[in-house]
Design a protein that fits this description.
By secondary structure, the protein is α/β, with parallel strands linked by helices. The protein has a domain of 247 residues: Rossmann fold (3-Layer(aba) Sandwich), CATH 3.40.50.720. Helices cover 45% and strands 12% of the residues. It contains 11 helices and 12 strands. The strands form 3 sheets. A 7-stranded parallel sheet has the order 3-2-1-4-5-7-10, sandwiched between helices. Strands 8-9-11 form a 3-stranded mixed sheet. The longest helix has 35 residues. The radius of gyration is 26 Å and the shape is globular. The protein starts with 6 loop residues before the first helix and ends with a helix.
Length: 384
Amino acid sequence: MIKSPTITQGLTLLRNFGRLAYVIKLVIRAQAQKSRYNKQTKAMPTPAPQSLILVTGVTGYLAAHVAEQLLDKGYRVRGTARTASKAEYLKKKWGDRFEWVNVSDLIEDGAFDEAVKDVDGIMHVASPFHYNVSDPYKDLIEPARKGTLSLLSAALKNGKKVQRIVITSSFAACAEPKDGSGYIYTEKDWNEFSIKEVEQKGKETSPQQAYRASKSEAERVAWDFIKEKKPQFDLVTINPTFIFGPILHQVEDPKDLNTSVAFVYKMLTGETKEIAAPAPSQAFVDVRDVAKAHVNAIEKEEAGGKRFLTTSAQFGFQQVADILRAKYPELKDKIPEGKPGQNYSTTHSVSNEEAKRVLNIEFMGLEKTIVDTAEDLKEKFLQK
């Protein structure tokens, strides 16, 4: 015979049922919150084949590599350029899947309004990298800030299809002086030091600190824009260290080489007489790896909302000289000797773990990068 439950047992059952119902309610609420969170933070889906990607400053050193890797993967590319002859040089190289539009002044209001129309993603690579500075604000900081805001504003207004923008920043936006030794820079680091230097010294600021301040300011305004405007697109920044590697864009005179590649050229030609000791966190990366980081950043959903330090390893210019002298014994009377085997190490280092993990980059070594750079420079400028 089945006994009827007592009043006490009945109350216990009701309490247990109530707890179960409460737990179920919490689970349902948590799932709803998770669903809303996923919708809010959903990153850009992988662009479909033949998607149109905008690359700003496409006639520049890094941007040309970014564009070529996009084309190699089946995308169509629209580039912005200031000089028609340089853009047409690339058009002849790349063919019909490449188009370009004239943007003569990056900081002009509406400069990118037409360029962003109908593109699925944007690589904003155009930004000054030079040390020809008389006024830090006028020559570097304001052009970098305004160029970034001009591009982002245009994408917000006219880039209806844009879901992700990848901006080329720099390790300079992360690197501040650190006491002692052994510090490892990561994506969490921000350069406030250079900005304070410019504020305090004005036109007396060193060109190097002015450049670093411009990169830090330009990246900061980009992240602030995303936070304040909450646009339909998300943001990724790529922060490379010293970039070496072959040239794809049109350079007819070595005087027009970008700053980093010019270091190698000047070693090959004997213009460099003395080899400086490495800076505390001096590191390098191959231009082809930086371009790959840009392309992977627009393809991988989990990259959205992140910064990525892109670097291969620490290095010293003595290493560069040693590599070049071993590879080109016929140029030993030009390439500075320095102190072979010395001044290789740096005080601090730069982490590339996040770029390796999320962007799946395996970085090239220094010898390959320097030799490929030198071979390209010799072919273009030293064998005529």
